[in-house]
Amino acid sequence: MSLKRGTRLTSCFRIDSVVIDTFGLYGRLVHGLSTHPQSLGELWREEMGESSAWIISFASVAFCFGAALSYSVLLGDTFSAMAQTVGLSGLCASRRIWILLLTGTIIFPLCSMTSLLALAPLSKTGVFGILVTMTVLGWRCPSINPFSPYGTGGRYLESLSLNQVPRFNTISRGFGSPYSLILCGMAAFAYLGHFSAPNFYHAVCEEEGGEEECTSSLRSYFKVTCRGFASVTMINCLAMIFGFLTFGGNSSGIVINNFSTLDPMASLCRLLLGLCVIGGYRKSKKIRCFADIVQRSHYDNSLRFSAAFLIAACREELLALWRMRDYRAKRTPQLEKHVTAGLLLVLTAISFFMTNVGFVVGINGALAGSSLVYVFPALMFLNNSKRHGGTAFIQRLERWLCRFLVGFGILGAISGAGAVVVNSLLP
To answer: Cα 361 from chain centroid?
Structure first.
């Protein structure tokens, strides 16, 4: 059996340790400042100055727009496949029609809402959908279930296209392979949340009894971070293992797309995935896990990353950039609606012609994600440690590690984006 995907498991754990460290850096920086910034933009202004604050907004716009684009493509693929499952064809099964329909009738109205409390019921599909999908991936894996319909002579193999059918005996060059550069960028996308680290910190502070209890809150912040990212890493690794053992080198960037449209269990996973992407709001007073504090934003409480949230976040950052340029600019509900409509128009037009979710995730993760995950926290920590001094061995070691992260992030962004483009043109 090839190790094209198997050798990526060690890469995932290496990346996870770096991601946890940089997420922790954001929390330490917020904790160390007397103002306790509420957002990444405020944290950057405190550490790096007002003149370069636009960098954070620009990176957030790019990241949120790229993530929303990947969700739009995913929704089109998901509902198109579901339409084929129930026997529809032609325009009724066209991914472009579904993208247009869902954007116009669901996503745009959700983005225009001032409160997302109405999405509370959909949030329950998040955890349930993950559990169901992981169960289906495991049960459909021929290495686990010898009677899998995707094993040798399986009844669903004939309904798969050439780029969906299982393909093994591929060769990997380990961590030095260009695919590992793509993985580093995708990991920055998979561990979506660094631009909201200050919100996480304050959410933990609130649960610990307010800002006066921030000393214990920092320890709780690290505990929640480690548990949360470890859980995400485990889920990603299981999906990678099950996907590779079932489809080998033809495993799709969204592995559920490999499954036949005739497979009812895969159709159920697609439905749950679609509902989770459209919206996932969670109102929580008690932090039980990492997901419970993703995302404490200007909305009422915790909002999971959904298509509606990403568009709203992108709109907020665009308006922030506009306000930086013209401080006299007035913000009105009508302006917000026009910006939202413009964003969705551009996003829908691109998703009509963009069919490769892996390409979108790879490019977005390599450029915007690498900046937010690897480069920005390291730069701010270097500036902070330089200002406050400190010559202890552990402090010098941290500064050298942060210098490495800056170089790694910049190199990874450039080479990772190049590898994604080359892999798409010459797979």
So the answer is: 8
